[in-house]
């Protein structure tokens, strides 16, 4: 870097990239501007004094997530994240767990996905991982950290298996929520109904409107076949980083970024108030739970030698080698089951027994 007179390094969307480049920045005494969303450790400013984080505060997003879960009175959630190559989740899960515990919400299951690029058959792996969630009671999913490729497949499989339908709720935070700025309509449709928490930025400043016009013109000329030319938070952060770095270099040999941040940047979180359009045209708050699927059916004991066979009995069909369970009590059970299954499935299995 000394040979080509590097003044600053800007980029790094993942924490493992940031940590590696930050060490290089320390040695060369060159500022490193990172876009990675991470829970900042207390000693990080001392360990990497040349590292500047441009991403929004993850702890604030998780506090916002906890507030949403608490406001809808959901008691259990499932946390989902894609680990990096070091097996880390950037510290997000611990913060989420502590935050939810403070309001009496339990994490029923933690779905840890390996790096997408490390999978030989990502389609099959994601399908099996999503299918496992059918046996869980909670239907509130909190997505902490996923790559774009993993996000597309996870939500597509979840939609096909009915995990983002009625009485289910998905909450996604940055950077997953910001990916929506650059995906096509088919991906958006599979994520319909998810609540996204993302960084808010003003769109009426003069500098923003000027940059937006330039971005659209250049993007459409280089990618004429793309469906959308809207810029997302990553483009804005890159612009702010380069602008702030350039201005700082012009003013002084030492990079100084004011506490208030660049003009266009904002760490405010915008949450829609009022009516939420839940999946399945649901007008009420989703229950956030469901009975487990037939992976764990409810077992019901039926007397093998009943006193009154008009109420219930066990018949053996030698031709088909199957048992049947006729009787008045069985008929009443099925009528009640039909009513219950309008709200949630109740898989069951009759088990004959000859004891008392």
TrEMBL record:
For this record, the Gene Ontology CC terms, alphabetical, are:
membrane
The record's listing under Pfam families reads: ANF_receptor
Q: Where is the Receptor ligand binding region domain?
A: 5-254
User: What InterPro entries does its record include?
Assistant: ANF_lig-bd_rcpt, Ionotropic_Glu_rcpt, Peripla_BP_I
Its taxonomic placement starts with: Eukaryota, Viridiplantae, Streptophyta, Embryophyta, Tracheophyta
Task: Determine the domain of life of the protein's source.
Answer: Eukaryota
The UniProt entry, under PANTHER family, shows: OS06G0188250 PROTEIN (PTHR34836), RECEPTOR LIGAND BINDING REGION DOMAIN-CONTAINING PROTEIN (PTHR34836:SF9)
Which parts form a coiled-coil structure per UniProt?
Answer: none
Sorted UniProt keywords: Membrane, Transmembrane, Transmembrane helix
Q: What is this protein called?
A: Receptor ligand binding region domain-containing protein
Localization: Membrane
């Amino acid at each position: 870097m000394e040979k080509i007179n590097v003044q600053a390094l800007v980029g790094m969307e993942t924490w493992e990239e940031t940590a590696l480049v930050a060490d290089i920045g320390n040695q060369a005494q060159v500022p490193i501007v990172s876009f990675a969303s991470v829970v900042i450790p207390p000693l990080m400013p001392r360990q990497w004094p040349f590292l500047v984080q441009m991403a929004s505060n993850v702890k604030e997003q998780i506090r916002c997530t906890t507030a949403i879960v608490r406001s809808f009175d959901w008691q259990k959630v499932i946390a989902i994240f894609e680990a990096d190559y070091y097996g880390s989740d950037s510290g997000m899960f611990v913060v989420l767990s502590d935050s939810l515990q403070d309001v009496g919400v339990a994490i029923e299951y933690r779905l840890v996905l390996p790096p997408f690029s490390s999978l030989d058959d990502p389609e099959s792996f994601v399908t099996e991982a999503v299918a496992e969630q059918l046996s869980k009671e909670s239907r509130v999913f909190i997505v902490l950290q996923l790559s774009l490729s993993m996000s597309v497949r996870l939500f597509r499989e979840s939609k096909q298996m009915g995990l983002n339908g009625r009485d289910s709720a998905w909450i996604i935070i940055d950077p997953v929520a910001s990916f929506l700025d650059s995906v096509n309509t088919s991906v958006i449709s599979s994520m319909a109904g998810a609540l996204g928490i993302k960084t808010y930025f003003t769109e009426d400043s003069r500098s923003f409107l000027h940059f937006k016009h330039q971005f659209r013109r250049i993007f459409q000329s280089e990618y004429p076949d793309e469906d959308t030319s809207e810029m997302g938070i990553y483009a804005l952060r890159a612009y702010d980083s380069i602008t702030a770095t350039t201005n700082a270099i012009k003013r002084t040999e030492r990079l100084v970024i004011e506490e208030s941040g660049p003009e266009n940047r904002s760490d405010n979180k915008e949450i829609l108030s009022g009516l939420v359009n839940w999946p399945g045209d649901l007008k009420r708050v989703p229950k956030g739970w469901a009975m487990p699927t037939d992976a764990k059916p409810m077992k019901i004991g039926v007397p093998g030698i009943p006193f009154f066979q008009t109420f219930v009995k066990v018949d053996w069909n030698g031709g088909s080698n199957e048992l049947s369970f006729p009787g008045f009590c069985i008929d009443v059970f099925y009528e009640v089951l039909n009513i219950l299954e309008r709200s949630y499935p109740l898989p069951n299995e009759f088990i004959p027994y000859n004891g008392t």
